[in-house]
């Protein structure tokens, strides 16, 4: 694992990308590498249109660096170290909230509870591509389209079971886990990095989607013209998040946006 002010890298090389933890009897994945090429390959295998891809975001404030990101941006995926500050804030915000029970076509976003250990990378990718305008760019006969169709009518607990038993998810994850630039820990390793998605919905709300929370979190209203990397979206989402962390620069950000190929 490597972490610095320019980004965070996690695992990838393993012949055993999925296992069951002997200690907890809980299904476990080898953590995905924080690598836009690996992420893009995974979601394309599942059925997202090749017209979309993940891209590194090198700055939140420098216009010359932000210009490298194709627009519009449909989702942001924030990767960060799990700190005591984060855990305290998460518990404090979640404590008064009810457990999310949403399901069906009326949901503004599809939220997926994480029950697979070290699967936060996969959860972040699924939250990014299954919601907002990106959902309309999923191949109609693809594994991802089937997953969305099957998940929509289910409650969160049943959705979690669907993911645990999905051969398509296991295959795509195993393929992605075999890629990347850094050596992988095994699936039972304790990894202190976490992935959270920020997605603009069809109703112009910015949603924070994290499978470890009690449910999806509506962070506020955006304009029709705003994408997920707009100033207002950054203020409601990523900047607010990082401000709470006290300026810890050990984070990485990738954007789901049009492909440059």
- Which class of secondary structure composition applies to the elements? alpha+beta
Percent range for helical residues? 25-40%
Strand-residue proportion? 15-25%
Number of helices: 9
Spatial shape: globular
- The radius of gyration is 17 Å
- Report, as a whole number of angstroms, the end-to-end distance: 29 Å
Summarize the structure.
The protein has 261 residues and is α+β, with helices and mostly antiparallel strands. The chain is built from 9 helices and 10 strands.
Written description of the protein model:
It contains 9 helices and 10 strands. The protein is of the alpha+beta class. The strands form 3 sheets. Strands 5-10-6-7-8-9 form a 6-stranded antiparallel β-sheet. The longest helix is centred in the N-terminal third of the chain and has 11 residues, at 36-46. The relative contact order is 0.27.
Give the secondary structure arrangement, pairings included.
Blueprint: E1 2-4, E2 7-9, E3 18-20, E4 27-29, H1 36-46, E5 52-56, H2 63-66, E6 75-81, H3 84-94, H4 120-129, H5 143-151, H6 156-164, H7 167-177, E7 193-200, E8 205-209, E9 217-221, H8 231-236, H9 238-244, E10 252-258
Helix pairs in contact: 1-7
